[in-house]
Protein 1
Amino acid sequence: MLKRYLLAPGPTPVPPEVLLAMAMPIIHHRSADFMPVLESARKGLKWLYQTENDVLILSSSGTGGMVGAVNNFFNHGDKALVINGGKFGERWTKICRAYGLEVKEIMVEWGYAVRPEVVEKALKDDPSIKGVFVQACETSTGVYHDIEALGKIVSKSGDTLFVVDAISALVAHDLKTDAWGVDIMVGGSQKGIMLPPGLAFASVSEKAWKRNASSKMPRFYFNFKKERENLLKNQTNFTSPVTLIIGLNEAIKMLQKEGLENVFARHARLAKATRAAVVALGLSLYTKESPSNSVTAVEAPAGIDGQEIYKTLREKYGITGAGGQDKAKGKIFRLAHLGYAGAFDVITAISGLEMVLKSMGYKLALGAGVAAAEEILMEDK
Amino acid sequence: MLKRYLLAPGPTPVPPEVLLAMAMPIIHHRSADFMPVLESARKGLKWLYQTENDVLILSSSGTGGMVGAVNNFFNHGDKALVINGGKFGERWTKICRAYGLEVKEIMVEWGYAVRPEVVEKALKDDPSIKGVFVQACETSTGVYHDIEALGKIVSKSGDTLFVVDAISALVAHDLKTDAWGVDIMVGGSQKGIMLPPGLAFASVSEKAWKRNASSKMPRFYFNFKKERENLLKNQTNFTSPVTLIIGLNEAIKMLQKEGLENVFARHARLAKATRAAVVALGLSLYTKESPSNSVTAVEAPAGIDGQEIYKTLREKYGITGAGGQDKAKGKIFRLAHLGYAGAFDVITAISGLEMVLKSMGYKLALGAGVAAAEEILMEDK
């Protein structure tokens, strides 16, 4: 028996409390049984999003929420400013182009965060830009973009919408939707929120709703206006994924018990411990600045293939982390500390990594990474 | 404690075997753990669909599959022939219009099935029609449209695509995708397939794939070509709803053990017993011809509100059936026998109905409906 550990940046482990709640018999989505469930989920998401806006709940992967964020608020030919610093930034560009938006990209070197002043200048240079698209955490590089700073800049810029893919950042980072002027913030279920894949979320500001009225693109499944009308009646437009929404309530209950500040602090601590351990092993972080609390991206040592590290961790030690994507493939590996994660998930990852690297001929002192992680993990206890 | 019984035409009850499989810890969707799961699901769906075509698996409600069936194979201005005999026929029209198709509707009186010769004439009169859209089971009226006859007609008609919403008919009806020339057949998880909501399915014929190449509508989330490319690698385009696909395999395993012919015969028997019981109670079927095996639609007796019957069944006896939709609201109620359903689900529904109607002043002999159902349910044993 090879005992398994899921340490990928999504899907993430689901707590047993949530799995059990989802294993209960199905209830009907248009019934009085379900309406309080959806009402509670709706309120819980507002709490998690730190917003007075309604947060829509969609039956899709997170990408469905990204598509909806483009499809409901823009028109063919509208100008979009996309911050592209990795695979998911690139996805914003692809979605915008699929719907005929004119995309201007701010290319950010992989491993680095966007400079807010570059965005500020781009908006000044072209006031006709209708939307700024960014990731909070760019999962492919482990970088956190400064949503607070960007929000302040976009807010000053007339009716430009600020659209944030927070799929892998929610729960791991303090994201103040309203205070920072985020117009649309997209989330997904299989990341910090500790659920199986199958739900996307999107908060929508009043400014964005105003824009929605003038957006004439064809849409049917991801129709945010209809979803909002339904949500206010504690319904969804189409059949609700009832099990996932039941699970969502359980997961939010757990997060509420811990408290938002503690949730963020836990993620920050686990991320810090992981980085300290990796550096203590003589490795370099792939994330050159502004590392996220969700996932740590590490460069493979010279002469060792990052994919081999990922595969050996998985096959020999049962630890599912992640390799690199696209141009980072082979060069890096990634370890997540997202959602249902605690101190000993970090220890497991680092211990596995030590054994894998040692077996591959990399010179290290066994236990050195673990010791460095423990230094951090002890700090708050 | 009010013990609960779910007898709605979706969501339907999920067998305990499936609920338990879905409660297992999460596995990663891009991992070797998951690829055999998806491969098995893909093969199982082909078996269930009776097709050599690949059957795509989408993370959405069934409506997402309907949207994809329009969005991937047609262009703005294309002519669509929609058979509209209920709320879901109307949905085809709405989706086609949302994407700029020119819709010609064949209006069918609610409770009746389309006459195949009317479709034949419409196609002859206008050879530029690019697609014919229909429901196999129109859930709002309980009618089964003759997919075999329609398939033969559309097949003769050049490159017109035959698009079937089989969301509530799959599993309950023998639907021969290939033999009957169905180009795109849409399914959903929360009906006969005995899963929670959250998956849509779509089989796509070679003829439809050829058309796909010339379809230029904007699309990103429901991109069938990309889903197919991924499926052939035992992947999905975006994050797979892993728990639901694990459940799908369990459910298909149960159906395979029973055997397709037995599955269809069971549904036909339960439907026949339900109709016989209702008629024995002096009630009239709302479905005037071609009743489906999925759901039985019944007219409320004179002076009694159909919604009150639905509500009293639910609140007093714990039985969740369904009321009427749109113009049938108040006039009818519906009882499903779909998916994880057996003889005593019918008996429960009819017994509950007898007690409810009696308490509302309707004249009946308690047990008369149950006796009529038993006559049918005994036939094959």
Protein 2
Amino acid sequence: MASRRKILSAGLGAAAAVMGGRRAVAGTAGTEGALGAPLLSPPYGQPSPYEASVVRKLWHPTSIPQIGVSLTPLQDLHGIITPSGLHYERHHAGVPSIDPDRHELLIHGMVHRPLMFTMDDLLRLPSVSKIHFLECSGNSQLWKAAPATATVQDTHGMLSCSEWTGVRLADLLDQAGIAPGAHWVLAEGADGAAMTRSIPLAKALDDALVAYAQNGEMLRPEQGFPLRLLLPGFEGNTNIKWLRRLKIGAAPWMTREETSKYTDIMPNTGGRARQFAFIMEVKSVVTTPSGGQTLRGHGFREIRGLAWSGRGAIKRVEVSVDGGATWRDAALQGPVLPICLTRFRLPWHWEGAPATILSRATDDHGNVQPTHDALVAERGPAAYYHYNAIHAWSLAETGVVTNAA
Amino acid sequence: MASRRKILSAGLGAAAAVMGGRRAVAGTAGTEGALGAPLLSPPYGQPSPYEASVVRKLWHPTSIPQIGVSLTPLQDLHGIITPSGLHYERHHAGVPSIDPDRHELLIHGMVHRPLMFTMDDLLRLPSVSKIHFLECSGNSQLWKAAPATATVQDTHGMLSCSEWTGVRLADLLDQAGIAPGAHWVLAEGADGAAMTRSIPLAKALDDALVAYAQNGEMLRPEQGFPLRLLLPGFEGNTNIKWLRRLKIGAAPWMTREETSKYTDIMPNTGGRARQFAFIMEVKSVVTTPSGGQTLRGHGFREIRGLAWSGRGAIKRVEVSVDGGATWRDAALQGPVLPICLTRFRLPWHWEGAPATILSRATDDHGNVQPTHDALVAERGPAAYYHYNAIHAWSLAETGVVTNAA
């Protein structure tokens, strides 16, 4: 308690001491005795107008408005749940409008009994809820230097976390009956691009969900309403949205998304690519302070960030404020769940000296987040996906924070 | 696995078997090859238009639109997180609009050092995130029989659950320095009614939070933006929204909300009231099937519901489909967190016979949800708040579910 008191005392340079009752009534002027807004305007609640700047940010690689990415504003978020209205998106052909009463899921191919499920069928079956992160394999394009102006929304915003509810895919496949020799599952979406990926049968039988709900309510349209695949820890694009078909087979289908896209060209191989590198590796980032923020005033402040691993639970997060010369262990907010964002926090006093702020995560399988140099050395100059290196923010004497990666 | 297979096999009366590939393409017609909606329309995402009926329901005890209750549609929700746009509300004077840059929190009274905090001050301090339910003490007005048409939104909808982030009140009070003889805290809101409650100092020093965020983003206006008190397990009205003042004192202040309201007149006492009965006791309710729903078709379906206790974690939930003659243990979805909604589930085959469906929760302190008769016998004919008895739904041969409480 003594050390906690010490931490806080220093922080209270920020809070004003009040001379015994001189300002007896605090709070905002003008609300006393005045009626506020009526109930249920609007019936489905919205954020405060004062939070209007907390929105997703758009990135269009082409001129087609249905193709692109929207990024989650991690710098403004707290805890681990991402509000569904701020979940990142990656679309290949825009958001289809699907009537759930007309939507069906077909399971066919190397099965004893092909099956077709309506949404009503699926909603009757045994359900499970899990809190898991989703991350795009293209998140953090930091293989090459990014602008100093980049925010954590720019560098890490293809990352979100929700409570998902659905049916275990293993239960559906058990009913269809897997034929001998089957090793892969083709998952197909009902968007205009018919987004299609091959998934190892072992993953489908392990922890895969056919999910219909997100953060308590039915999926948002942008997240696959009324049905999506959820493959905990696998790169986002494999978690097929608007899921309409699962075909069981002996070998992967070599779709466009696993040949021309979402593969990793590896160094010293004559241009050969690593394929089916599904798992999002251990990673972390400091969200406060982060790029674009300005620290106002010296003294106590808390360093906060997020850590995650597609292989399991976060075991440890270390934070450095001197560019990696020394490290301190951050506290992890419980419950620390597997394949889930974990919020970490470290008390800190900033007295105005320049600082370089890093975080380094370790998961419960012993995987440690690599340095940028180590990752680039391993993956080579043509790397594009699966960047998970330690990230650096630079804090100037002025309090201005910039990207240093 | 054998029993799981048996459960599901029966359920697949619902799913259509498909003759080997005759219907090779499933899903919704009309999306193939068509571009969907562009990204970021709107920038802050909204539910599917097909979910337009999943909204809060209004109850106004007077003609004043700023006074009333909005109820969470529990029958349509999954998992444990309540979407912030569907969180229940209880307002005494409407929703004030508060500029966070002008909002301050005063701590004064029996303290060594009165303090005033801006929102910036609070956001710098050590933070904590917890998933907790909130329930209005007036939830479930079932002391007397409710209409057969009542839904679970009507009977239990003043109940929601969020991930809350804020500062430990104990940390703030430690800085102010509690004077000898102090035992209570007065908490005051900045709404037009200046909603005010007396809180035991022991609670304030235990697990109370001064919360600024909910489900990842800043509080919704209806939930106290920019600052509220969060008292895990205490009746909703004590979790003062738009929190602007905390006064430390020796005795409770006997505000309107703890004399004329929010007290329990007890039987055989000559009209004396139980006061400061803060804790929401162990409780549960089946949400599927529930009042207003119609079961379509016989065979497998899952019985689902929610259990919670203001005293700790849920230890056990039993379900009966024969009006309490026999009970079976439901599965609890993990992680089972203290003072948090817990989702329970039980596989069930319904073959068309009438059924009376009940659930009974037990918490980790050994408290068991009482029967209606036992609760009424204990609390008497003038009871109004703190109803937590076992709830019954009646299922007819037609599949129609009605309230039986």
